[in-house]
């Protein structure tokens, strides 16, 4: 176990003798064993012993020590004012942090001041704005098992988004986790801990939260009858245990005296879903289609799909956009409803701009309302809520002429919460301070008692303001001054020279070098009155503020619905902007299965990152659903395949698509097996990764899926690779029948088109311009003629000698194959040098005989290596590796 966690060993052997404060620390460390405890001492959060050493090293703060009668303890303190950034460092280092605050006024404490853990900060349950990304959700997952079923719950504590699903298939769990990418996971007994990403913290949680009727009771207390809101026992367990964990991380501050935990009142809705309601995009697909993360491919300046699509105006919309892309729909009606709205807004630039303009003033009310419910919102938060509510009627007005059902529904759902808006407007000052306990928060006119107190305060101060003139008159001392300081309060200051004129009712308050300060009984009385009124007013303000906050909290469900409505509208407007500005077309959905008809399709990201882009068509249907795609390296195969998948994904997310026209049938899942990636940390070779991904495709794809295969069998010998590629083609064609695009450098695979109905060839061509290869990026029917790997190798900087020799080998191979049906290994090997001198035969080289020109001094194995190559089945990647090897050997000579 990590020595920084749990009760410090150094204290354990003297636990009974510890000072009361250290004993408190020791006990909190024992109670929160899985967290690093930060313990408030005045203005600092302290850690002691091993935890101190760890905190000091990670946060780069000085390690000091605390000494008392029981010994000496290393100590490290982080300033409370700046705690969040240090806590972030500790989270990044993999710790959960239990924050133990002083929960009693030190002046009221008889012995040691009471402390309690008020929050446990963990990666998945963050609510601190400083630690959260505004444009993305932050989920904590909970995986529970009941019989052979897995229940998966996902909660964003900062926004209240809560999803639950269940499945009997462990790989489906991994797929959903890939989609939501939680930063933390709570795992129940018997549930697997391996489907989580490396960067997801797996948290052990109290077993009892998963057991007995505790999950059920908790679900019921939040959402009503578990049987109605949720489906299976596994879902109830996952959801209940996650609620328990979320409450646990709120610490003890909310604990009632009877030990009941405080509730997370803003969690008033859980969405139960079936993964089949959404187009499935597993982790591999999300990564290879670069939806949210970039991959450096061909050195192109990377961008992600979400980056080129995000024209949202507010944080709510930008998070919603990610969610729509993560979970494209599979129900035609729902998709078309989104398309209707996008179409209407795309055609109405004025409304779109007006909406965008207004939505820019919308605050992140989703996170705001969760702060309100957790009693962490300040007066500025409430004003921000009001500012948001203020724009709602304007948004409503902008949608006054909305025609389609979706926009009309949105308009109807817009709820400006007039009474809340009015309440905040009346109660909270326009620019309130951050601190809510020190007054200045409640607006004048809101509460009579408060106004009276403020009036007393004001008139008292006014009287004091007039006192100076009055006392000057009375005493005849022209230099007399009335002032105030925080230690001594109000005073009348008289210089030493005038002390003789001081009246009898002056009492000395303070002596300075050149003057004396006094007060009079009346001044004192007025001062007390002001102080009292001020104190009572501040307290009253705080009470009133809390009342307003509670009233707002009681409407959290309506505010969440409003947030959701605004988020949807923002995404639809963003889709519309992209559609209008980048010439996207509305896709049509067709009933016949397996249809992908795209005219002039473009890759939404690549077209934005380079000067010109060549649009291409795609035609797949039940009769022709498997395209084998050949062509030189860099000709555009990967781009083309991804563009087909992205168009399908965008269409189902509700967006228009980068194409002149698209007619599509729905897809249940996009599979990708593209690019070579090593999973060295996971102990898998490139080939293993490739085969694991392929196995998943073959096991799970249906005839409604879209499959992209980019060079299958690359990581093994050419013969094995080709065999696998061919077998996969046959299997997908015969058994699955999914729409498939298969890019390959195995030219033999193009023969599959003759053998299998439904398989056809497409290719990209290249022109040779002198020694350069020029790509037109235009897709054509039929197989590619040549692969141009050698020319691409030249462009990559392989020396001419090697490139020329490769070209000779290729030519010889082609000639041999056409004449004898043999490969190049039987051909002749000319001189390795390029000076045109007499070539030695391969046989000479193999035999190690020297030619007159010295060329035969060449490494005899070199010829052997070249002979061994079956160039007919060598991929360009392999050819490149070979060239590199040959080059090194040639240079050695
Ligand atoms: N339709 C197109 N219009 C314009 N440029 C394109 C087009 N398609 C691809 N490109 C450009 O060509 C580059 C290479 O494309 P891509 O990666 O798709 O080639 P590839 O044939 O898959 O190569 P390899 O076989 O080496 O993986 C892209 O980065 C892009 O810059």
TrEMBL record:
Residues 812-875 are annotated as: Disordered. InterPro entries: DNA_mismatch_repair_MutS, DNA_mismatch_repair_MutS-lik_N, DNA_mismatch_repair_MutS/MSH, DNA_mismatch_repair_MutS_C, DNA_mismatch_repair_MutS_clamp, DNA_mismatch_repair_MutS_core, DNA_mismatch_repair_MutS_N, DNA_mismatch_repair_MutS_sf. GO terms for molecular function: ATP binding; ATP-dependent DNA damage sensor activity; damaged DNA binding; mismatched DNA binding. The keyword DNA-binding applies. Residues 838-849 have a biased composition (Low complexity). Residues 705-721 form the DNA mismatch repair proteins mutS family domain. GO terms for biological process: mismatch repair. ATP binds at residues 631-638. SUPFAM superfamilies: DNA repair protein MutS, domain I (SSF55271), DNA repair protein MutS, domain II (SSF53150), DNA repair protein MutS, domain III (SSF48334), P-loop containing nucleoside triphosphate hydrolases (SSF52540). Residues 812-834 have a biased composition (Basic and acidic residues). Keywords: ATP-binding, DNA damage, DNA repair, DNA-binding, Nucleotide-binding. The keyword Nucleotide-binding applies. Belongs to the DNA mismatch repair MutS family. HAMAP family: MutS. This protein is involved in the repair of mismatches in DNA. It is possible that it carries out the mismatch recognition step. This protein has a weak ATPase activity. This is DNA mismatch repair protein MutS. It comes from Halorientalis regularis.
